[in-house]
Design goal:
The chain is α/β, with parallel strands linked by helices and 171 residues long. It has 10 helices and 5 strands; from the N terminus they run E-H-H-E-H-H-E-H-H-E-H-H-H-E-H. Helix 1 crosses helix 2 and helix 1 packs across helix 3.
Length: 171
C-alpha cells in the first residue's frame, strides 16, 4: 500500500472543514490519499502529537476518534521513525528542526508524497516572505527544499490542491 505523509497544517485544514461540514481542499486531499493508499504516522506518535496540537481546536475527541477509526480501517498506519536524513544535513539545508520528523517519516515509510501547506517543506528560505511570494512558489510547484526532500526520500512534496491529480496519476 502506498504511504503518504500528511503534515499538521493539512490536518488542521481537514479538521476545520470536517467540523464545519464544508468539505474543501483538505477533505479532497485526504479522500484522494485514502483512495490511493494510507497515511503514515511514526510509531513514537511524534507526528500524531503535532496533528493533535495543531488541529484539535474545540473538538479534541473528534479528531482522536477519527484517527482511531482510520487506524482500524488500515488507512492510517504506523512506521518507525528513522534517523535518515541526518539532523546535521537537514539543518544545513535550513529546514527547521520541528519539520525534520516529516522528512524522516517519508524516508522510513517509503512514502510517495509529503502533503503540506508549509513553505518550510517547499522553500524554507521563504519563511518570512510575503504571502503572495509564498503562494506563487507553492503554485509553481518548485523549491530547493522540495527538490532536496525528493532526492533524499523519493517522496514528492505536494500542496493540498495537487493531491487529487497526483493520486489519479499513480493509480
Amino acid at each position: 500500500m502506498l504511504a503518504f505523509v500528511v503534515d499538521a497544517n493539512v490536518v488542521h485544514v481537514f479538521q476545520e472543514e470536517r467540523i464545519r461540514e464544508k468539505p474543501g481542499v483538505g477533505c479532497a486531499a485526504i479522500s484522494a490519499i485514502f483512495g490511493a493508499g494510507c497515511v503514515a504516522l511514526d510509531s513514537d506518535e511524534t507526528c500524531q502529537a503535532e496533528w493533535l496540537n495543531c488541529a484539535m481546536a474545540k473538538y479534541p475527541l473528534n479528531l482522536m476518534d477519527w484517527i482511531a477509526d482510520r487506524m482500524v480501517d488500515g488507512k492510517i498506519r504506523y512506521w518507525p521513525l528513522g534517523d535518515q536524513p541526518p539532523f546535521k544535513e537537514l539543518t544545513a539545508q535550513g529546514i527547521p528542526k520541528p519539520d525534520h520528523k516529516w522528512i524522516k517519516l517519508a524516508k522510513s515509510s517509503a512514502a510517495v508524497a509529503v502533503v503540506t501547506n508549509d513553505i518550510d517543506l517547499i522553500d524554507c528560505k521563504l519563511k518570512k516572505a510575503p504571502a503572495k511570494v509564498k503562494a506563487k512558489v507553492r503554485a509553481a510547484g518548485r523549491g530547493p527544499t522540495k527538490r532536496y526532500i525528493k532526492k533524499k526520500t523519493g517522496a514528492e512534496v505536494l500542496c493540498c490542491e495537487d493531491v487529487e491529480n497526483f493520486c489519479a496519476s499513480i493509480r
